[in-house]
Amino acid sequence: MRTYDHGALEKKWQERWHRDAIYKTPDDTEREKCYILDMFPYPSGEGLHIGHPKGYVATDVYARNRRMNGKNVLHPMGWDAFGLPAENYAIKNKMHPQVAVRKNIKRFKEQLARIGFDHDWEREVDTTDPEYYRWTQWIFLQLYKKGLAYESHEPINWCPSCLTGLANEDLEGNTCERCGTLIEKKPMRQWVLRITEYADRLLADLETLPWQESVKEMQRNWIGRSEGAEFDFPITGTDEVIRVFTTRPDTLFGATYVVLAPEHPSVDRLRTAIQNLAEVERYRTEAAQKTEIERTAGTKEKTGVLLEGVQATNPANGESLPVFIADYVLSTYGTGAIMAVPAHDERDNAFAKAFGVPIRTVIQGEGAEEDMVYTGAGTLVNSGPFDGMQSEEAKAAITKHAHGTQVVRYRLQDWVFSRQRYWGEPIPLIHCETCGVVPVPEADLPVRLPDVESYEPTGTGESPLAGIDEWVNTTCPGCGGKGMRETNTMPQWAGSSWYYVRYMDPKNDTALVDPKKEKYWSPVDIYVGGMEHATRHLIYARFWHKFLYDIGVVYTMEPFTKLYTVGLVLAEDGRKMSKRWGNVINPDDMVDKVGADAFRVYMMFMGPFEQATAWSIDHMAGARRFLERVYGLSERVAADAESDALLRSRTIRKVGDDILAFNFNTAISALMIMVNELEKRASVAREDMETLLLLLAPFAPHLTDELWESLGHKESIHCAAWPAYDTTVLEQAEITIVVQVNGKTRGSFTTAQGVLKEELISLAKEVPSVIPHLQGKTVRREVVVPGRLINFVVS
RNA sequence: GCCGGAGUGGCGGAAUUGGUAGACGCGCACGACUCAAAAUCGUGUCUCGCAAGGGGUGAGGGUUCGAUUCCCUCCUCCGGCACCA
Description:
With 795 residues, the protein is α+β, with helices and mostly antiparallel strands. It is 35% helix and 18% strand. It starts with 5 loop residues before the first helix and ends with a strand. It binds one RNA strand of 85 nucleotides through helix 7, strand 13, strand 17, helix 10 and strand 29.
């Protein structure tokens, strides 16, 4: 008996697949395509994490199955290599980030190769390759030209540890997602993308996507749509008008004061009217520094300052109202100003009680309790001509009456797109004293990232690029005069926002993508990656895709049709893997131990793909044992063995359906059942064995190719056709009918399919274990479920 | 607080539209092989009961001939958003 030496066997097949280029993406566009994509990895210095291969094995299995089914498969891989970790790694190890990235990519590739993936490496992309980021810059220029990229000096999130500005999406609460440091608000010059312009489409088109509900819901929450109205509250004795946003125009008569966010620009314009200016300024300064910390501490205690001498007029009833500034009103949401209705809003209520402002009930609702702030809808009271009206109706009526405007507001904020760090795509703009901001001509792209002596962030609000005079100083493309290059770089999320397009046409140097190729391959049919990208990468990519659609570069509204999120691989102790716990599992060690095939089979068998599951060395050993048994079976193949068409057909159907539905664990279970069956026999029919190998090939590509060859095949099993199941055989198979009496199972019998109801009933009554339960009883009802069961209701 | 997802043996987990709960694997027990062990193979493995039979899918109610699946109330865990007006 031969031995299953996975080391030598896997090496042999990996080399042969490479030699024969069997995974090369076909050029012809006649056949049906399948574009299956992994979220490409960040090539960190740590090497491959165990979570990576789980997703990659799934797409690999799927891709192999599709290829065997005759589809043109695009299953590429690449590197998302710009960004902070590479830069920090480079700083720490005193090497150029590009050198560090190349080194890490090499390591990742070796690790991936050992697991036997079917990626087409001719289409590899690397976001740090100037030929790649040339097009990232090109997209930025198009955004700029359409007015969707703008320069701003607003206060933004600043990480005092990473020394860069961040987008809202880069925060975890009030801390930096990367390093956990508390975020500060810092006014600085920055480039911002107008993603809010696409908020409505990003939200609406979610409905067209067959994604899992949780991801869609996360995006809905992130975008945060609310319908309401805006009203103008004029300030007495000035030209100033405060515009407020509310979702409850029906409560307008209950407004007893107005609150502005501390940063609200009206405060500056009202300086002469404000009698307690010193106090106001003190509060504003405090708020600017303290807000974030206080919010983290979780105190909801209301603070604020009355603007003495300032009165606002309620547009509904002409009432004169006091005006406050308070940090519970956010400058970034709505208009940065609210009308406060303490009777029907928890926060306004708390503030009003703390500051002694009157509280006026204007809504009476069912279930309203004493001492509780009623925030529901109801019947209007104390609302002049609108008394007695219902909330819904009153919203429109009062909006009209008080000359308000119906508006829709989003929680989503524009995408802060500049980073004050070295390792990113340079933003392709030039500042000129006469022409202002001028885009770099497209012919001059890429604007290459120059070498620099120190990659360390400066912390000054400028990137290290600002220190390279010979790079910064250039000629203005507009007037030919003196120009200075933009020194901010793009965030890590830029390159990953369109890479799936590049794979379709990776070598194109005259256009972002050849329209013919884009039309053929787009959209991505299956996209697989981590849940953590739900409100970042997946929103950014959808935004850029819609923009590319608008400018006619791509032809679909959405980039990714199906989305599967990889469930976390936990450590054996059930906790997250972490160096701190010392419970990290290294994929290389596992592959050494049991081989890539057993590793792959285990990863797919460990549980439902999208669910978090703890690693188990024992369970992985079980996967290895399973493959040993397949190996053993192959030595029992005999010409005179009886084949089992029913077993084959059942397994073919189950495995095929399960792979397409991403139910890999039950697919493997079906293969195990087949092996169990075949093992009962003294010898195995060639046809049965070949079917087993074909079905197992996507999961265990090396072993199956070896055994396939040993059966005399010259061509790789991965170029063979997926077997078809025989419908007739399945239809002619006997089925088991369960017999119940009063809903309790009392027996079963087997019969041919399609037997008439009457005959089934008489067969059921004759089942020995059923007879005693019917004796002396009257059958009141006979429930017959075709092909499944019969239930006698007796008394 | 709002929203989404999930609770099934000792463990990972299976169960078409409501139709034999616990497939498959791990572990464990016993047996075979062995001087012995490992490996391998065989048998058993939700629970109470000698058995017939009863109970059982987080808890309690309901609908139904029949509920892990549908409805109501509640508990627990995971994830997202959260002073968003």
